Amino acid sequence: KQWYQRRVRAEKIQFVAAKALSTLSCGAPKHQAKIREAGGVLPLVRMLKGSFSERVLLAVISTLAALSIGLAHTPVKLNQSAIAAGGAIKSLVSLVSGNTNDLVKVQSAYALACITLAHTDNQKLLLKEKFTFTLLIDLLYSSTREVSLGAGRALTTFAYNHIPTQKSIVKGGEIRYEQFIQFLNSDNQEEQGHAAFQVIILARVMTGEDHVVVMAQGIEILYQLLQSSNDLIQELAANNIASLAHTRAGIPAALVSVGAMDTLIELLESPAELVRSSAATAVGYMTFNRGAMRILLTACRRKPELFEILQENLTAGKISDVFIREWEYCLTVGLPSQSVHLVPVEHAVLEVDVGDSSQSTLMNHLKTTTGTIDTPTYGTTVTEDMFDAASTHRYTSASSVMLQ
Question: What angle do CA 344, 387, 319 make, to 5 degrees?
Answer without folding.
Answer: 55
